[in-house]
Protein backbone atom coordinates (compact mmCIF):
# COMPACT_ATOMS: atom_id res chain seq x y z
CA UNK A 1 0.00 0.00 0.00
CA UNK A 2 2.86 2.40 0.85
CA UNK A 3 4.34 1.79 -2.61
CA UNK A 4 0.96 2.48 -4.20
CA UNK A 5 0.56 5.71 -2.24
CA UNK A 6 4.09 6.75 -3.17
CA UNK A 7 3.34 5.94 -6.78
CA UNK A 8 0.19 8.01 -6.73
CA UNK A 9 2.19 10.91 -5.18
CA UNK A 10 -0.80 12.07 -3.16
CA UNK A 11 1.42 14.57 -1.35
CA UNK A 12 1.65 16.69 -4.47
CA UNK A 13 -2.05 16.48 -5.30
CA UNK A 14 -4.83 18.79 -4.24
CA UNK A 15 -7.41 17.52 -1.78
CA UNK A 16 -9.95 16.95 -4.59
CA UNK A 17 -7.40 15.12 -6.75
CA UNK A 18 -6.37 12.98 -3.79
CA UNK A 19 -10.02 12.20 -3.00
CA UNK A 20 -10.70 11.13 -6.59
CA UNK A 21 -7.49 9.05 -6.73
CA UNK A 22 -8.31 7.23 -3.50
CA UNK A 23 -11.88 6.61 -4.67
CA UNK A 24 -10.55 5.08 -7.87
CA UNK A 25 -8.30 2.80 -5.82
CA UNK A 26 -11.28 2.03 -3.59
CA UNK A 27 -13.54 1.15 -6.54
CA UNK A 28 -10.89 -1.09 -8.10
CA UNK A 29 -10.36 -2.86 -4.78
CA UNK A 30 -14.11 -3.30 -4.16
CA UNK A 31 -14.77 -4.56 -7.72
CA UNK A 32 -11.87 -7.00 -7.44
CA UNK A 33 -13.14 -8.24 -4.10
CA UNK A 34 -16.68 -8.55 -5.51
CA UNK A 35 -15.48 -10.66 -8.45
CA UNK A 36 -13.59 -12.90 -6.07
CA UNK A 37 -16.69 -13.19 -3.85
CA UNK A 38 -18.86 -14.13 -6.89
CA UNK A 39 -16.42 -16.88 -7.83
CA UNK A 40 -16.29 -18.03 -4.22
CA UNK A 41 -20.12 -18.05 -4.02
CA UNK A 42 -20.44 -19.93 -7.32
CA UNK A 43 -18.06 -22.66 -6.13
CA UNK A 44 -19.94 -22.96 -2.83
CA UNK A 45 -23.28 -23.10 -4.67
CA UNK A 46 -22.10 -25.96 -6.95
CA UNK A 47 -20.62 -27.83 -3.99
CA UNK A 48 -23.90 -27.79 -2.07
CA UNK A 49 -26.16 -28.28 -5.11
CA UNK A 50 -27.16 -31.83 -4.10
CA UNK A 51 -27.23 -31.11 -0.38
CA UNK A 52 -30.59 -31.96 1.29
CA UNK A 53 -30.92 -28.50 2.76
CA UNK A 54 -30.14 -26.80 -0.54
CA UNK A 55 -27.79 -23.88 -1.29
CA UNK A 56 -30.12 -20.86 -0.98
CA UNK A 57 -28.19 -19.64 2.06
CA UNK A 58 -25.16 -18.96 -0.16
CA UNK A 59 -26.85 -15.88 -1.67
CA UNK A 60 -27.41 -14.36 1.78
CA UNK A 61 -23.77 -14.83 2.74
CA UNK A 62 -22.71 -13.39 -0.59
CA UNK A 63 -24.77 -10.22 -0.01
CA UNK A 64 -23.42 -9.89 3.55
CA UNK A 65 -19.84 -10.30 2.28
CA UNK A 66 -20.38 -7.62 -0.40
CA UNK A 67 -21.83 -5.18 2.13
CA UNK A 68 -18.93 -5.82 4.50
CA UNK A 69 -16.47 -5.28 1.64
CA UNK A 70 -18.08 -1.96 0.72
CA UNK A 71 -18.27 -0.77 4.37
CA UNK A 72 -14.74 -1.81 5.31
CA UNK A 73 -13.49 -0.26 2.07
CA UNK A 74 -15.21 3.04 2.86
CA UNK A 75 -13.76 3.10 6.38
CA UNK A 76 -10.26 2.29 5.13
CA UNK A 77 -10.47 4.86 2.33
CA UNK A 78 -11.70 7.60 4.68
CA UNK A 79 -9.04 6.73 7.29
CA UNK A 80 -6.33 6.71 4.64
CA UNK A 81 -7.51 10.05 3.23
CA UNK A 82 -7.56 11.63 6.71
CA UNK A 83 -4.12 10.32 7.70
CA UNK A 84 -2.48 11.28 4.41
CA UNK A 85 -4.06 14.67 3.70
CA UNK A 86 -5.62 16.10 6.89
CA UNK A 87 -4.09 14.70 10.08
CA UNK A 88 -0.61 16.29 9.96
CA UNK A 89 -1.66 19.83 8.85
CA UNK A 90 -4.52 19.86 11.36
CA UNK A 91 -2.12 18.86 14.15
CA UNK A 92 0.29 21.61 13.05
CA UNK A 93 -2.46 24.23 13.01
CA UNK A 94 -3.90 23.07 16.34
CA UNK A 95 -0.47 23.23 17.99
CA UNK A 96 0.13 26.68 16.48
CA UNK A 97 -3.22 27.99 17.73
CA UNK A 98 -2.48 26.72 21.26
CA UNK A 99 0.92 28.48 21.26
CA UNK A 100 -0.61 31.73 20.02
CA UNK A 101 -3.25 31.50 22.76
CA UNK A 102 -0.39 31.20 25.26
CA UNK A 103 1.28 34.34 23.76
CA UNK A 104 4.10 32.20 22.36
CA UNK A 105 4.96 33.46 18.87
CA UNK A 106 8.51 32.15 18.67
CA UNK A 107 7.80 29.30 16.26
CA UNK A 108 7.13 28.68 12.57
CA UNK A 109 4.25 26.98 10.81
CA UNK A 110 5.62 24.74 8.05
CA UNK A 111 3.91 22.00 6.03
CA UNK A 112 5.64 20.63 2.95
CA UNK A 113 2.93 19.89 0.44
CA UNK A 114 1.20 21.40 -2.59
CA UNK A 115 -2.42 21.14 -1.60
CA UNK A 116 -4.93 23.50 -0.01
CA UNK A 117 -3.83 22.55 3.51
CA UNK A 118 -0.34 23.71 2.66
CA UNK A 119 -1.78 27.03 1.47
CA UNK A 120 -3.72 27.28 4.72
CA UNK A 121 -0.55 26.64 6.76
CA UNK A 122 1.33 29.30 4.79
CA UNK A 123 -1.49 31.78 5.42
CA UNK A 124 -1.40 30.85 9.12
CA UNK A 125 2.37 31.39 9.20
CA UNK A 126 1.93 34.80 7.55
CA UNK A 127 -0.62 35.72 10.22
CA UNK A 128 1.71 34.46 12.99
CA UNK A 129 4.62 36.43 11.56
CA UNK A 130 2.55 39.61 11.42
CA UNK A 131 1.31 39.05 14.97
CA UNK A 132 4.89 38.57 16.15
CA UNK A 133 5.98 41.76 14.39
CA UNK A 134 3.09 43.75 15.88
CA UNK A 135 3.75 42.27 19.31
CA UNK A 136 7.43 43.26 19.13
CA UNK A 137 6.51 46.81 18.12
CA UNK A 138 4.00 47.03 20.97
CA UNK A 139 6.45 45.56 23.48
CA UNK A 140 9.20 47.90 22.31
CA UNK A 141 6.84 50.84 22.69
CA UNK A 142 5.92 49.77 26.23
CA UNK A 143 9.58 49.22 27.15
CA UNK A 144 10.58 52.60 25.74
CA UNK A 145 7.76 54.27 27.61
CA UNK A 146 8.79 52.54 30.84
CA UNK A 147 12.35 53.63 30.19
CA UNK A 148 11.22 57.20 29.64
CA UNK A 149 9.31 57.11 32.94
CA UNK A 150 12.35 55.77 34.79
CA UNK A 151 14.64 58.38 33.22
CA UNK A 152 12.10 61.11 33.93
CA UNK A 153 11.92 60.16 37.62
CA UNK A 154 15.71 59.87 37.83
CA UNK A 155 16.52 63.18 36.14
CA UNK A 156 14.12 65.17 38.30
CA UNK A 157 15.99 64.23 41.47
CA UNK A 158 19.02 66.44 40.83
CA UNK A 159 17.16 69.72 40.08
CA UNK A 160 14.82 69.00 42.98
CA UNK A 161 17.85 68.52 45.22
CA UNK A 162 19.20 71.86 44.01
CA UNK A 163 15.86 73.53 44.76
CA UNK A 164 15.90 71.93 48.18
CA UNK A 165 19.36 73.38 48.78
CA UNK A 166 18.16 76.87 47.86
CA UNK A 167 15.15 76.47 50.14
CA UNK A 168 17.33 75.38 53.08
CA UNK A 169 19.66 78.30 52.38
CA UNK A 170 16.81 80.81 52.47
CA UNK A 171 15.17 79.10 55.43
CA UNK A 172 18.41 79.34 57.43
CA UNK A 173 19.47 82.90 56.64
CA UNK A 174 16.31 84.82 55.77
CA UNK A 175 14.63 84.69 59.24
CA UNK A 176 17.87 85.96 60.80
CA UNK A 177 18.19 88.63 58.14
CA UNK A 178 21.70 87.41 57.32
CA UNK A 179 21.10 87.69 53.59
CA UNK A 180 21.15 90.88 51.59
CA UNK A 181 18.26 91.95 49.41
CA UNK A 182 20.48 91.63 46.33
CA UNK A 183 21.47 88.06 47.24
CA UNK A 184 17.84 87.22 48.01
CA UNK A 185 16.65 88.49 44.62
CA UNK A 186 19.50 86.69 42.86
CA UNK A 187 18.64 83.43 44.62
CA UNK A 188 14.95 83.78 43.80
CA UNK A 189 15.82 84.48 40.17
CA UNK A 190 17.98 81.35 40.04
CA UNK A 191 15.22 79.29 41.64
CA UNK A 192 12.76 80.65 39.11
CA UNK A 193 15.03 79.64 36.22
CA UNK A 194 15.26 76.10 37.63
CA UNK A 195 11.49 75.93 38.08
CA UNK A 196 10.89 77.01 34.48
CA UNK A 197 13.48 74.52 33.26
CA UNK A 198 11.83 71.69 35.18
CA UNK A 199 8.44 72.73 33.79
CA UNK A 200 9.77 72.63 30.22
CA UNK A 201 11.38 69.27 30.93
CA UNK A 202 8.14 67.83 32.34
CA UNK A 203 6.18 69.05 29.30
CA UNK A 204 8.75 67.59 26.90
CA UNK A 205 8.96 64.21 28.64
CA UNK A 206 5.19 63.86 28.91
CA UNK A 207 4.75 64.22 25.15
CA UNK A 208 7.46 61.86 23.86
CA UNK A 209 7.33 58.10 23.44
CA UNK A 210 11.07 57.37 23.40
CA UNK A 211 14.30 59.07 24.39
CA UNK A 212 15.32 59.77 20.79
CA UNK A 213 12.22 61.97 20.40
CA UNK A 214 13.49 64.59 22.86
CA UNK A 215 13.56 67.85 20.87
CA UNK A 216 16.68 70.00 20.53
CA UNK A 217 16.21 73.77 20.87
CA UNK A 218 19.51 75.57 20.40
CA UNK A 219 19.93 79.20 21.34
CA UNK A 220 22.71 81.72 21.61
CA UNK A 221 23.98 82.23 25.14
CA UNK A 222 26.91 84.06 26.61
CA UNK A 223 29.49 81.61 27.82
CA UNK A 224 29.93 83.47 31.11
CA UNK A 225 26.19 83.15 31.77
CA UNK A 226 26.25 79.45 30.94
CA UNK A 227 29.30 78.71 33.07
CA UNK A 228 27.81 80.67 35.96
CA UNK A 229 24.68 78.51 35.83
CA UNK A 230 26.76 75.33 35.64
CA UNK A 231 29.04 76.40 38.50
CA UNK A 232 26.07 77.33 40.66
CA UNK A 233 24.43 73.96 40.04
CA UNK A 234 27.68 72.10 40.72
CA UNK A 235 28.17 73.95 44.00
CA UNK A 236 24.66 73.15 45.19
CA UNK A 237 25.01 69.46 44.31
CA UNK A 238 28.44 69.22 45.94
CA UNK A 239 27.30 71.05 49.08
CA UNK A 240 24.48 68.56 49.59
CA UNK A 241 27.10 65.79 49.94
CA UNK A 242 29.76 67.87 51.67
CA UNK A 243 32.12 67.54 48.70
CA UNK A 244 34.58 70.23 47.55
CA UNK A 245 33.97 71.48 44.02
CA UNK A 246 36.55 73.24 41.81
CA UNK A 247 36.07 74.36 38.23
CA UNK A 248 38.48 75.45 35.52
CA UNK A 249 37.83 76.98 32.14
CA UNK A 250 39.80 77.01 28.93
CA UNK A 251 37.62 79.08 26.66
CA UNK A 252 38.31 82.03 24.41
CA UNK A 253 34.75 82.38 23.12
CA UNK A 254 32.02 84.72 24.22
CA UNK A 255 28.89 83.20 22.64
CA UNK A 256 27.82 79.56 22.30
CA UNK A 257 24.92 78.14 20.28
CA UNK A 258 23.59 75.25 22.37
CA UNK A 259 20.45 73.79 23.92
CA UNK A 260 20.72 75.21 27.45
CA UNK A 261 18.24 72.80 29.03
CA UNK A 262 19.94 69.77 27.47
CA UNK A 263 23.42 70.91 28.53
CA UNK A 264 22.17 71.57 32.07
CA UNK A 265 20.50 68.17 32.22
CA UNK A 266 23.64 66.33 31.08
CA UNK A 267 25.87 68.36 33.38
CA UNK A 268 23.71 67.79 36.45
CA UNK A 269 23.77 64.06 35.76
CA UNK A 270 27.53 63.76 35.41
CA UNK A 271 28.32 66.13 38.32
CA UNK A 272 25.89 64.17 40.51
CA UNK A 273 27.67 60.99 39.41
CA UNK A 274 31.05 62.48 40.39
CA UNK A 275 29.79 63.76 43.74
CA UNK A 276 28.18 60.44 44.55
CA UNK A 277 31.43 58.48 44.20
CA UNK A 278 33.97 61.14 45.25
CA UNK A 279 35.78 60.81 48.53
CA UNK A 280 36.23 64.52 49.06
CA UNK A 281 36.53 66.47 45.81
CA UNK A 282 35.26 66.82 42.24
CA UNK A 283 36.86 68.91 39.52
CA UNK A 284 35.08 70.36 36.49
CA UNK A 285 36.91 71.48 33.33
CA UNK A 286 35.14 73.55 30.65
CA UNK A 287 36.67 73.67 27.18
CA UNK A 288 35.72 75.13 23.79
CA UNK A 289 37.71 73.73 20.89
CA UNK A 290 37.11 73.03 17.18
CA UNK A 291 33.46 73.98 17.38
CA UNK A 292 32.72 71.81 20.42
CA UNK A 293 31.90 72.73 23.99
CA UNK A 294 33.01 70.00 26.38
CA UNK A 295 32.60 69.42 30.10
CA UNK A 296 34.89 67.02 31.99
CA UNK A 297 34.03 65.97 35.54
CA UNK A 298 36.73 64.17 37.52
CA UNK A 299 36.31 62.77 41.02
CA UNK A 300 38.81 61.38 43.53
CA UNK A 301 36.75 58.26 44.19
CA UNK A 302 37.51 54.59 43.40
CA UNK A 303 36.91 55.04 39.68
CA UNK A 304 35.25 52.65 37.26
CA UNK A 305 35.94 48.93 37.17
CA UNK A 306 36.96 47.34 33.89
CA UNK A 307 33.40 46.12 33.43
CA UNK A 308 32.06 49.56 34.33
CA UNK A 309 34.20 51.24 31.65
CA UNK A 310 32.64 48.96 29.04
CA UNK A 311 29.05 48.94 30.26
CA UNK A 312 28.46 52.13 32.27
CA UNK A 313 26.59 53.85 29.43
CA UNK A 314 24.35 50.86 28.68
CA UNK A 315 20.70 51.20 29.73
CA UNK A 316 19.92 49.56 33.07
CA UNK A 317 23.48 48.28 33.54
CA UNK A 318 23.80 46.66 36.97
CA UNK A 319 26.89 47.84 38.75
CA UNK A 320 28.30 46.47 41.95
CA UNK A 321 25.58 48.06 44.07
CA UNK A 322 21.99 49.19 43.83
CA UNK A 323 23.13 52.80 43.82
CA UNK A 324 25.55 52.14 40.98
CA UNK A 325 22.85 50.43 39.02
CA UNK A 326 20.49 53.33 39.54
CA UNK A 327 23.00 55.97 38.53
CA UNK A 328 25.09 54.40 35.82
CA UNK A 329 22.19 52.54 34.25
CA UNK A 330 20.01 55.61 33.76
CA UNK A 331 22.06 58.78 34.17
CA UNK A 332 25.01 58.02 31.90
CA UNK A 333 22.87 56.31 29.29
CA UNK A 334 20.64 59.39 29.15
CA UNK A 335 23.68 61.67 28.93
CA UNK A 336 25.16 59.66 26.07
CA UNK A 337 21.92 59.76 24.11
CA UNK A 338 21.42 63.50 24.65
CA UNK A 339 25.04 64.32 23.75
CA UNK A 340 24.69 62.35 20.52
CA UNK A 341 21.47 64.20 19.70
CA UNK A 342 23.49 67.40 20.14
CA UNK A 343 26.03 65.92 17.66
CA UNK A 344 28.55 65.36 20.43
CA UNK A 345 29.41 62.39 22.58
CA UNK A 346 30.13 61.00 26.04
CA UNK A 347 33.37 59.38 27.15
CA UNK A 348 33.82 57.37 30.36
CA UNK A 349 37.32 56.78 31.69
CA UNK A 350 39.48 56.80 34.80
CA UNK A 351 41.79 59.72 35.57
CA UNK A 352 45.52 59.34 36.05
CA UNK A 353 44.94 59.52 39.81
CA UNK A 354 42.43 56.66 39.71
CA UNK A 355 39.12 58.47 40.08
CA UNK A 356 36.27 58.47 37.58
CA UNK A 357 36.41 60.84 34.61
CA UNK A 358 33.42 61.66 32.40
CA UNK A 359 33.58 64.00 29.41
CA UNK A 360 30.45 65.30 27.67
CA UNK A 361 30.80 67.23 24.41
CA UNK A 362 28.30 69.25 22.38
CA UNK A 363 28.58 70.60 18.85
CA UNK A 364 28.04 74.35 18.89
CA UNK A 365 28.63 77.47 16.86
CA UNK A 366 31.34 79.47 18.57
CA UNK A 367 31.61 83.24 18.03
CA UNK A 368 34.80 84.84 19.32
Shape category: rod-shaped
CATH fourth-tier homologous superfamily of the largest domain: Histidine kinase-like ATPase, C-terminal domain
Q: Kindly report the average pLDDT value.
A: 79
Largest sheet: 5 strands, mixed
Helix content: 55-70%
Q: Radius of gyration in whole Å, from Cα? A: 41 Å
Order of helices and strands: HHHHHEHEEHEEHHEEE
User: Remind me, CATH topology of the largest domain?
Assistant: Heat Shock Protein 90
Number of helices: 9
Strand content: 5-15%
CATH class of the largest domain: Alpha Beta
The strands making up the biggest β-sheet line up spatially as: 2-4-5-7-6
CATH architecture group name of the largest domain: 2-Layer Sandwich
Can you count the beta strands?
Answer: 8
Distance between the termini: 94 Å
Derived from helix and strand composition plus strand pairing, the structural class reads alpha+beta
Integer count of domains:
2
Low-confidence stretches: 320-329
Question: What this model shows, in words?
Answer:
- With 368 residues, the chain is α+β, with helices and mostly antiparallel strands.
- It has two domains: 102 residues, no CATH class; 224 residues, Heat Shock Protein 90.
- Helix content is 63%, strand content 13%.
- It is built from nine helices and eight strands.
- The protein has a five-stranded mixed sheet. It has a three-stranded antiparallel sheet with strand order 1-3-8.
- α3 runs parallel beside α4, α4 packs antiparallel against α5 and α7 packs antiparallel against α9.
- It is rod-shaped.
- The N and C termini lie far apart (94 Å).
- The relative contact order is 0.07.
- About 3% of the residues have low confidence.
